[in-house]
Write a structure and sequence with these properties.
It contains 7 helices and 3 strands. It has 192 residues and is mainly alpha-helical. The protein has one domain: Peptidase M41 (Methane Monooxygenase Hydroxylase, Chain G, domain 1). Strands 2-1-3 form a 3-stranded antiparallel beta sheet. A hairpin with a 5-residue loop joins β1 and β2. The protein is globular and about 45 Å long. 39% of the residues are buried. Bound molecules: zinc ion. The site of zinc ion (ZN) has 5 residues, from α1 and α3.
C-alpha cells in the first residue's frame, strides 16, 4: 500500500472508528460521511445518547459518548502513521479531544457535579478503554469494512451502517456484552 492510498483511507478510517464505536456502545447517530483527499472532511452526524442518565445504562451512555468522541484518531492508527497525513489528523485529534472534554463537562453539569478536574479525569480514564476496544477483532473488522464502504459511498445512513456491522458480527451495545463502565464512570452519582 503506497502513501497516497494510506492518505486516501485516513478520513474513512477515522470516521468509521467514530461510527463503529458509537454503534457498539449503543450511541445512535443519523449518518457517517467521509470525503477522501486533502483536508479533513467527514463527520459522524447527529450522534446522541437516547437513554436517561440513570443507573447502569446511563453510565454506559456517559462512557459511550466519550468513547465515541475519542475513537476517530485511534481507528486511524490502524493504518499506521504517515508523515503527510499527520497535519489533518492532528487537527481532527484536537477537535475530538475537545469534544470528549465538552461532553464530560456537559454530563457533569446535568448530574449537578462540580466540573473541577473531573471532566479531564473521565476523558483520561476512558481513553485507554477506547484503545482496548480496538483490540477486539470483530470491532477492527467492522472498522475496515465500514471504511471500505465509505470509500465508495462517502455517506451512509445509520441503517446502512447497521447492515455492515451485522456482516462483521457486531450488534448495538456489543461492547457492553463483555465490559462494564470503568471505575471513574462507575463513581458518578447518576440521576434518579
Ligand atoms: Zn474525529
Amino acid at each position: 500500500m503506497g502513501d497516497r492510498q494510506v492518505h486516501r483511507e485516513c478520513v474513512p478510517y477515522h470516521e468509521a472508528g467514530h461510527a463503529v464505536v458509537a454503534y457498539c456502545v449503543g450511541v445512535t447517530f443519523d449518518a457517517v460521511s467521509a470525503m477522501p483527499g486533502h483536508g479533513f472532511k467527514g463527520q459522524l452526524e447527529g450522534w446522541r445518547w437516547d437513554g436517561v442518565l440513570c443507573g447502569t445504562r446511563g453510565r454506559q451512555g456517559v462512557q459511550g459518548l466519550v468513547m465515541t468522541a475519542l475513537a476517530g484518531p485511534i481507528a486511524e492508527s490502524l493504518l499506521g502513521q504517515q508523515p503527510e497525513q499527520q497535519e489533518a489528523s492532528d487537527i481532527a485529534r484536537k477537535d475530538d479531544e475537545q469534544q470528549a472534554t465538552s461532553i464530560a463537562e456537559c454530563i457533569l453539569d446535568k448530574l449537578k457535579c462540580p466540573r473541577d478536574s473531573r471532566a479531564q479525569r473521565i476523558v483520561d480514564a476512558v481513553r485507554p478503554k477506547t484503545s482496548e476496544a480496538f483490540q477486539d477483532s470483530s470491532i477492527r473488522r467492522g472498522v475496515e469494512a465500514l471504511a471500505q464502504r465509505l470509500l465508495g459511498s462517502r455517506r451512509l445512513g445509520y441503517s446502512e451502517v447497521a447492515s455492515v456491522m451485522a456482516e462483521a458480527g457486531l450488534h448495538t451495545g456489543y461492547y457492553w456484552d463483555t465490559h462494564s463502565p470503568c471505575a471513574e464512570i462507575a463513581g458518578l452519582p447518576m440521576l434518579g
